[in-house]
Structure formats: structure tokens, C-alpha cells
## 1
Amino acid sequence: MRKLYSSIRGTCDFSPLQASSFYSITHRTREIFRIFGYQEIILPLLEEAGVFIRGVGKNTDIVEKQLFGVARRQGEAKSDVVLRPEGTAQVVRYYLQNSLYKQSSFHKFFYIGPMFRGERPQKGRLRQFHHIGAEAIGSDSIYLDAELISLALHILDEVGVAKKELRINTLGCSSDKEKFSKELQKIFASKKGKLCQDCQKRAALNPLRILDCKQAQCRKLIESLHLGEARVCAQCKRQFHDLLSLLSALNIQYIYEPYLVRGLDYYTHSVFEITSKELGSQDALGAGGRYNSLIKELGGPDVAAAGFALGIERILLALGELKHPETIRAFIAVADSTLMPDALAILQKIRAKGISSEMDYCDRSLKAQLRYAQKLGARFVVIVGQEEAKDNCVTLKDMEESFQEKLSLDQAIAKIHNRGGN
Ligand code: HAM
């Protein structure tokens, strides 16, 4: 018996129905980005590991546990080339490699494509998934933060995700983050035993991450600490309150989430997540925030930036049952197989008009062809018989109105074109 292969755990195949939804989401999204003034970039799936080690942070889960290394040559064990786990650090690499700050002080980019993380797969958590990402580089204005948040929500609205919640927090500036990290290190040093295993390691290396750990024992400890937003400096606090007022003025509802930290180290100031109750434990449809130190961290000038990414597979999960993709509009049926050349010529003529159409390639009887046309959802069947071929015409059958008539091919095409329906 030959082995039957299955897809790799944590990857997913898109059926025609899912692929059709995928493309209608990305098609609508591209149009929205155009309206908001973002330009599309397409960057490689392969990237040097250092971009993420330095960009995302060496003590983050993404870098510590989830990078997929790619051997450059067969048999090579170790490699500094990885499949990209996210887009932000990569976009900054692109921005710096091309010295884009010399061309203009402000850039807005978007990208749509696959990301890879060696996570433990579960519902909504994959090893290969797709991001719709936006990055705006060159401004620390809270108006830009507000634009990005409203853009992310607008995309979700437009692709049909009605129910969602925006959760937002501020991490303060780099020195606020550093001070708070040290404070937390001290607090957790004496309470390590009360933390989950992952957080026991984080206590020394990345204590901020403990704040949004989902484990019950960690949640209990964190809530008992009553940390609030007092940890950020007066200026950052004012900035954050101004951003919240801006969101209210835009009629955007939010939930202030003082323990929202995010799993990537580059964030400073505002961070946000958009969640959906439809998703279960992996409830984030998308997330983002400011990363004012990342460009400098990756060797560039001191330039502020912010962005977000939405997960397409999670959007599809939130949409639930998918609508059937567009069906075939016309089917060319032949009364006997000697008429196949005529059918093919007719099919070509109809397709040239941009009408989705199909014919039989499996030697079915006329009756079976009509049944097959119905299965495909065809509104019209163009029947080609000996008599029609002799009279240089076709029989056009309207499946919806159970009506048929003999017409010239041009008349039939005009009717297929004009009559309402699918
Ligand atoms: P992230 O939170 O890691 O952020 O990913 C953004 C979104 O991608 C998540 O909210 C989720 O919808 C989806 N996602 C993440 N991991 C998985 C997975 N394993 N399986 C399925 N979906 C997943 C970032 O990556 C940042 N680069 C976002 C950003 C852009 N911040 C600023 N600019």
C-alpha cells in the first residue's frame, strides 16, 4: 500500500469556498488601503534570523520557540535564514535597506501574505497563517494611532465581522518600560513559585510579558498587584488620554486593558488588540501598536512608527459559514459527441464575452449533462443538437424560468448577458 500523505499539522488547505472568501477579503482590503493612502509591498518569505532576534526580541516566544529555520544547502543543520514569523521587523528592514527616510519623512505600507510560527497548533493557532498588515513609518502623532485603529476596525466591518471588541493600553516610552520591567523583576523574584512555568522563566528575562499571561495562577497574582496605568510618565499618560478622547470623538468604543502587553518586544506607547467572542481561546482577530524604538534598534535613525496586523484565518473563523462562490452562468450541452467541436467553439465565444461557462468533458448523456448543469448552478443551458447545427442556431434553456427557445448564437449570448440572476 502506498502512503497517503496529509497536510502538515498547523497548516491549512483552502477549499474553493474558503479560497473565494480569502480573495474577496483581500480584494476589499486592498481597495480600503488605497482609500486610506497605504501602498502595497511584497516582501520575501525568507529573512535573516537577526531581523527578528533584534527586532521582535530574543526573549520573546516568537524568537525563542517559534522560528522556522531554513537550511541553505541540503544536509546543513544550522541556518541563519528563517521563514518570516511577522511583518513589522521585515518592513523596517526593507525601509532601512532602501534608505527610504532619505526620500520622504513619512511612509505608509501594507502587505498581505503568509507568516510562519512553530506554535503548538490548535483552533485559530496555526504554523502557517496569513497577515493583512499595515505599517506607517515617520510620525509619532496620536492622529496616526487613531487612523490605524479605525482602519483595522473598518476592514473588519467591511469584510463582514460585525461583532468585535477593541482593547487598548499604553506601555509608555522606552524608559517607562525599562523602569517598569525592573520593578516587576523585583516583585516577581519573591513570588516566582506562584507563576506558571513559562512565566517563571519570564520573571527575570521578560517580566512585562507575565502581565498578559492567560494562565489562571498568573492572572490571580497579577490582579492582586493592582498595577493600573500609574507606571507610565506624565507625558505618556497625557498622550494616551488624548488618544482615548480621539477614539471617543470618532465613535470608536474601546475597553481599557491595563495588562495588555503583547508578545513582541518592540512596542512602546499604545498597544491594542481586536478580539471576537466567536473565536474561543485564540480570540485576537488582529493587533498592533506603536514601535517608536524599533527603527533605531535595527540600525536606522530615530524614527517613530506604528502599525497593525489582522489574521485572515481568524477572520474566516469569525465569519462562520461561508457563502458559496459565484457559480457557472452558462452550460453548453451537446446532444451527441460528434457535436463537441461546435460546443467548444460556442464555449470559446461565450467565454470571450466574460461569461463564466462550462461544458461536459466526461461523455455524459444529454439528460446527465442537464443534471450536471443544475449541480453547477448554471442559470442557462445552451443545447447544441444536430437540428440546431443544421439551422445554424442553438436552443437556449433558462433553468430558472423553465423556458426554452431557438435563437441564433448572438441572440443567445445577449440573453445570457442581460437577464438578471446569478
Ligand atoms: P501578532 O499579534 O503576533 O502581531 O499577530 C497579529 C494577528 O495575526 C493576531 O491577532 C492573529 O489574528 C494572527 N495570528 C498570529 N499568530 C497566529 C497563528 N499562529 N495562527 C493564526 N493566526 C495568527 C504581529 O505580528 C505584529 N507584527 C502586528 C503589528 C504590525 N504591530 C505593529 N505593526
## 2
Amino acid sequence: MKAKTYKPTLRNLRYLAAELRKGELVAIPTETVYGLAANALDSSACRKIFKAKQRPRNDPLIVHVLGLEQAEQLADFNPAARKVAKKFWPGPLTLVLPRKACIPRIVTSGGDTVAIRAPLHEVARKLLKIARVPLAAPSANSFSYISPTEAAHVTDGLGARIRHVIDGGPCVLGVESTILDLTDPNNPRVLRPGSIGVSALQKVLGNEVRETSGAKSQRARQVAPGMLAKHYSPRTPLRLTNAINTRVKEDTGIIVLRRPRSLAAPNIFWLSERGSLEEIARNLYRVLRHADKSGFKEIVVEKLLAEGELAGAINDRLKRAAAKR
Ligand code: TXA
Ligand code: MG
């Protein structure tokens, strides 16, 4: 198998929607990261996702829909869930809710809840409209590797194992969606931080939102199994540091947050021009992948000291990337 990359023309999207309905996999752009999509109502199609990604079966998939109406056919919405969906969809917010019977077991890893989101990316939305089925789609990378934010990243990692990749350009946000568990609307919990932060959610929900993404409890492990493993990681050992020393050895890749003022050496990479968090998020995975491919013994990344929602999401990814296997 060798992946073919398609431009998102109407003709191509019609063909690929038909492929999805036939049970094929298609890698799709979203505003967060690229996803590896299958018809969420077709368990044998969803099984192919786990195989292509080499993803353990106990790590459930996110189901992508056009909006609330379609989502309500797949999960039991409570008023709180409707409220946040109306506010943040389409967009980078995934809701965990009790599943309905039409969702195959493989999608939820046998659990009673399903994760759902409505992506904002125009190409993903067009495809959802034409295919007229919900799409299960985890990030389109090999399990535990860095998520893809460009079509070429998908081909690089999964090109030998899938047939179709849609090139929708680089992802605008660059970090995965915020996952909010609203199974119990009185106890909303963020399982994975993203660009939609706790305070924005609290404002809409009107009650306290807890963040449990770092939790090591047994319960947390059951709730989001994929969240505790080493994740988003390059193959080269990665270390976070407060004090970047740009004069270190050439066999070390150095990633700094903002463009250095003086001319940089070939082992120095930067994530943004002026330190904007949006830009850091957008460039993070591309730069990590690039540094990972450059043959360094180690990659050292400058710690992000900023506080706040998006900073929290970026730090979460960096910590996981640095975690020992
Ligand atoms: O931005 C995103 O969310 C991207 C794009 C493609 O939409 N998708 C993505 O999917 O990041 P993935 O599979 O790489 O991460 C999904 C996470 C996993 O850690 C999984 O454990 C968790 O969502 N998850 C899925 N279903 C769940 C459920 N029912 N309860 C709790 N966590 C769940
Ligand atoms: Mg992933």
C-alpha cells in the first residue's frame, strides 16, 4: 500500500466520501491536527484505524460530526453538554458523554461513554456533509509519536499503511482538542487540556471544572487511557530546561520559544517570531518532527513559563514528550 495525497476538490471529496462509506480509511485535516478517519458506525472500518496506527484497543476514538443534531444521535446529551456544544462547536472541544447503542464497541474500547466533537476545518466539514456518516478519527500518527499537523507528516508516518490522505494545508491550531467529560454534568472534568481552557468552560457551564489530565489515579486511567502513557514523543530523547545554553554541542538539537536575535546555528530551532502562544502551538509538532529527524543525540526544549489556558496545553504536550518510556 502506498498513500496517495489528494487536493480537497469537490470531485476528490466525493470520491473519498464514497471510500469512507465503503469502509476505507482517509486521513483528514482538522483545525487541531490531522485525523485518521473511518465510518464511525462501521466496526470493521474502525478496526483498521487501530491496525494502521498500531494503537492499543483500550484507547478509544473520538467521533467527528457536523454539529449538535448529528451528535445527539450518537450520545446522550444533558443540558450542560448542549450549552457548551452550542457555544464552542464547531471547534476544538471534545465532549465525553454516555454513548448510544449505535456506536460500535470498538470505538469506545468497550466503555459506556463516547468522545465527540464537531471540527471547524472546512475540508473536514465538507467531507462529513458528503459522507453523511460520523467519522471516528484519532490523530493520524503511529501510536505515541508526535501528532501530524501537515499532510506530509501523515504520509511520513503512515504512508505505507493507508491509501488516502487529504492535503488541507497546515493545521491552524496545532494542538489536539480540549477533552471535557460531562458524563456527570455536576462534575465536569477536563481530561486533556487544549486551546479552550478551563475558565472559558467554567464561564459557560457556571460550575467548577476540574482538570484531571495529569491524574495518576486508577479512575483517571480508566477514563482516558491514552492520556497517561508517554505520548506526543519524538524518538530522540527530549529534555525540558529553564536555562537554554545555545553554545552546547552540535549533536544536541535546541528548540527555543522565540527567534534568537543573533544568527542561529543549524542545531537551533525556534517556535515563534515573538513568543506568541498561538504561533508556538501551531509550530510545535512540525519543529519537533524536524528536530527528531535531524539525527541529534538529544533534543533540549526551552520551558514555557507563561501561565494560562493555551500555555497549559502546550506544557502538557511538552511534558509528555519528555516523559521516559
Ligand atoms: O483534536 C483532536 O482531538 C484530534 C483531531 C483529529 O480531532 N484527535 C485526537 O484523537 O487527538 P486521539 O485519538 O489522538 O486522542 C483522543 C483521546 C485519547 O487520549 C483517548 O483516550 C481519549 O481521547 N478518549 C476517547 N474516547 C474517550 C472516552 N470515551 N472517554 C475518555 N477519553 C476518551
Ligand atoms: Mg493522538
## 3
Amino acid sequence: MRKKIVVGNWKMNNNFQEAEELISTIADDLDEKEIVCEVVICPPSLYLEMASDYAEESVLFIAAQNVSSFDNGAYTGEISASMLSEMEISYCIVGHSERRKYFNETDSQLAEKVNRLLDNNIKPIFCIGEQLDERENGFQFDVVRNQMQKGLFHLNSDEFLNITVAYEPVWAIGTGVVATPNQAQEMHSYIRGLISEKYNDSTAEETTILYGGSCNSDNASILFSNKDVDGGLIGGASLKADEFVKIVMSC
Ligand code: PEP
């Protein structure tokens, strides 16, 4: 049976003390509960080591928000997959719409990031999703298919089993406008179909597909109750411990 996962993406928020308080509160709360999904926290890079230390003693897994597409060398400001792996980082977000938009990350760079992570035994959480005008013009499936093909479909089926896909309609990220359960289910089922077409049914059935975009404790359980929605990638609502824990408990 495929894994259910809830991922908290803190983005560039919180100072060190706030980050430490947040992760320790989440870890303590969850340690007292019976949870059925994997819980992953993505702090800013400078807090990865601290977060990793907390994770060791808890149910939490830690993810990076970004990685270099290069192995190592003269790339000022970059952090390599092998450096993340030394910190025992389990997952890394790739292709978040904010990185595609503000840092002009291209499909081919994203495919290279996926390769670097897999070379270092870190699991990519690969983000895809259409813009509002693309949905309004009926192109949402074409956009998502193209992103899957260019970013992931160079992998063989064994490699693909390490991928978590996050469907994040760009119009829903940080806007308070959430996809309807039907819109989410329709796209998740389409994505699973693409994986089955490219690889096979069992690879598609094994792949965790997360929903992201204005997910909160009020809408999480209805979204997660869809057959092809295997959890969530949570931005704003992951910055409040009680809210994030409620979302985890909805999974
Ligand atoms: C995100 O940043 O991936 C995200 C889903 O953000 P939010 O939950 O704030 O919409």
C-alpha cells in the first residue's frame, strides 16, 4: 500500500528560536498521538541540522526546500545533494512554483536536481501545477503532463519509485483559494494515469501524490478523503503547530 505523507513547507519564515520552538512543539504533540502518515518538515537550509537533531528522536522526517543541480564545485551559494545527505535529510522539494517563477528554474534544471538527489539517496518531492489562466483556458492537463515528462519521465521505473509528486495548482498557493475535492481528485487520477502509461499500473499505484494549495485544518480531511489524494504539501498552515498537527491527524 502506498504511503500517505503530510509535508510542512516553512519557506523563508521564522528565526532560529521560533523554528526550534515550532519543531519541538510539533514533535512533542505528534509523539503522543497515533499517526497513520509520514510527517515531513521542510525548514530553511540553515535550520536543517537543528531540525534533523529533533527528528532523530521523533516521528518526523526532514526535507530540504531546494538543492543544487550540480554535484559540487565553483557554484557560490549552492548546497549540494551530498551535503544534504551528510545531514541525514530524507526528502527534498523540487520544482516548487515559487522557484520556477522567481528563480527561473527550468524543466531541465529540475530533472538534474532530481538526478542529484537520487544519486544521494534523497527522495524528491516533485511539484507540478498549472497557472490560473492555463486552467481557465482548459490547458491544465497539458501543463501537468509536460512537467511530468520533462522533469521525471527520464527515470526508469525503479528510480521513479523514490518520487513523491505534489500537485499544487499555482492559483491555490498562498491565496486562500483551495481546489475543490473534485478538481483535486480529477487531476490526481490523471497524474496516476500518466505514471501508469509511462511505467506500469503497480508503479502508479505505489506513487504518493500530494495536494498543495491553501490546505488547512478545515479542508484537509475532505481533500485527503479522495481516493488518489495521498496527503498534502502545506505552506502557511504548517507554521502553526496546532494547525499543522490537526492537518496531520486528518490524513
Ligand atoms: C506551498 O507553498 O507549497 C503551499 C501549498 O502553500 P500554502 O499552503 O500556503 O498555499
## 4
Amino acid sequence: MHQFLCLLLLCGVVHGLNNGLARTPPMGFLSWERFRCNLDCKTDPENCVSEHLYKSIADVIVAEGYRDLGYEYVNIDDCWPAEDRDSEGRLQPDPDRFPSGMKNLSQYMHSKGLKLGIYEDFGKKTCAGYPGSEFFLRTDANTFADWEIDLLKFDGCNSDPKDMDVGYSTMSKFLNLTTRPMLFSCEWPGYLRAVGIKPNYQAIRENCNIWRNYNDIQDSWDSVLSIINFYGQNKGNFAAVAGPGGFNDPDELIVGDFGLSYYQQKAQFGMWAMLASPLFISADLRNIKPEFKAILQNKRVIAINQDPLGAQATRLYEAGPIQVWLKPLAVNGTYAVAILNTDNQGMPTKVTLTPAQIGVPNPNGINITETFDNVHVGAFKPGQNFTIPINPTGIFLASVVPLS
Ligand code: GLA
């Protein structure tokens, strides 16, 4: 019994940050990849980093059904602060772009059943050169609590990665001391890896709810694939540490942007679901094509991401351009499986596999149901072949249920 409980709770592996947040991967919007550090409110008022941007995105999140599917965090990224702290050393938002102040903005979100996230940096300055939290950790944690902030993304530019083990855990404690639950999003392991330091994922899990490991996503399939392959290599088995309360963060969703084809967008969304990744959309939800919105709003794919077990998929193997990924789900013996075709030749590849080859050799066989369109593929015995055509740079995502 103890062993069984241990399996359920992943004893000795996952002691998460004790703030009760991120029991499943957080969902919402994050402005960075799409809106960057656009300061041009004069000629581009709809898209500059300003309270108008976050409010108008929030309005759409509510009006178009995203919130009711779980997309609840509206996250500000870099470039929100004024150039200087106030006379008492507190951060203040840029007065022209956030004239109503941050507390007003968070209350706007709360009145709509949403949450507000903000961005800061552990170093002297943020990556874009705004005041960082160095020497102000406690002040900033208190300021964010005063503003009723719900999530802090904490970057690591302009700091020494050797200070991060102490620094990030100190910030985590200061956030906890405010008594306001604020989801803590850390870039800590990403910066450590970049300079060849092996991250201590136990410590990271104890101090952060989500954490970045790898490069920033850009608006291209190459970028998405490089992240998928980094997660596939899973160096140091960081996948094992994911679970309720703490998740690896492969960065934002670029579904709805410019760089991916329709099938590549499905591939990113499907893979992010498999990876138990935060689902933070970085797209202009005010202007999104219906077929891309439908991807982001696919309930069955979201359910894989939000599965209460919180397990991160691992790559079982690669065969040429074909990758097979498996994610255990909470209902005993069931799985989500993704078959990714990374080939870019112009016709679909017919992939033939057996249940044993996707890692589910249940003696009585399995039922396979494709997830995006909810199509029953069939029931198959462990050694029986099934054949799936998969588009170039596309995904086959399915649920696998054992037959008794
Ligand atoms: C870093 C982070 C990004 C984004 C930018 C902002 O590059 O990794 O996610 O926050 O800084 O400047």
C-alpha cells in the first residue's frame, strides 16, 4: 500500500512549492513572443505594451470562451516598468502606458474572473534594460502582493547564474511571506544550463511552480522543433520532476501567429499538451483565424494537458523523422500518445506501428481514439499493426485505453 501511495504521490521525487498553485499546468496569455517590447503607443496603440493591450486581450479571453476553458492568467512581460523606482525604492509602471496603475489592472482582471501575471528579473536590469530586482527582492515581492498580482515570471538577465540557487529561493520565500499566493515562474534552470551548470531540479521544484529550461521560442517551426527535441533528449531526466504543483515550461504557444502552418500549429499544441506544459498563448487573440482558435479551444487536447496526474510525456524513440511520445494519464493504464512526423517531404507518411511499439502492450489490446477530431481508430492486440497517415511536420495525437 505504501509503495502504491508512493507511486501516486511520486514519493521522494516531488515536493513542490507549497503555495497550492499550478496543480495542473497553468493556462492563459503571455505577451512576449507576439508583442515583444513594443513601446510605440503613438503609431501602434493597439499593440504596444500598455494596459490597453492587456485589457483588450482579457475582454476577448472572456467573450470568446477562452476563460471558460481554463485560460485564466493574463501575463505582462518585459518593458512595463518606468525607468526609475519611486522615492521609496518601489517599482512603478510606465505612467504613459499604464496610467491607471497595476492595482487597477489586476482588479480589472479579477472582476472578469481572470488573474494578472507580471514580469521581473533577478539581476540588475531586465533583459530589455528596465530596473531589475537585485537588492530589492523583498520590496518587489511586497509591491506585487500590494498590487494583487497572481503570477510572477522571474527572468535572469544581467545576473550571475552562480547566485541563482540562493537568489531564486530567496525570492520564493519573500513571495510566500507576503501570504498572497503568486504562481512563481522561474527562468533559473535555463540560465544554469546555458553556462553548463547542472540544475538541481528538486530545489527548483521546491521553489517554483513552473520553470524554463531552454531557449526563447520564436515564430518558426525550426524553433518549435528545437524545443521538442530538447525535451525529447530529456538530459538529466528533468521530465521526471513534473507533477502537480511544478511543471517544466517549454515557453509560449505561437498558435495563431505568422510562422506555423495549420498542421504545425496542431503539432505544437498537441506536443505542449503532451509535455504538461503551461499553455500560455502569445498571439493576438483579438485577430485570430477561426481554425487557429479552434486548435486553442480543443477541449480534448486541453484535457490531456490538464490531466490531474500531471505527468510529462517522454519520447519513447525516434525512427528517422518519426517520433513516438507517451504520457501516462490519471486513469490507471490509460495514456496519451503522440506520433510526430518531422519530415517535410510533400506527402503524408504512412506510419505503421503496434500497441507494443507505442509502449502499451496490454494483453487484451487497446482502443485508440484520435484526439483532435475524436475519431475512433480501432481496437488492436499488442502485436497487431495499425497504420496512420501523418502530414509533413504534423502530429497524430490519440488516447489509448486498455481493453479488459
Ligand atoms: C528573456 C526571456 C523571455 C522574455 C524576454 C524579455 O529573453 O527568456 O521569455 O521574457 O527576456 O526581455
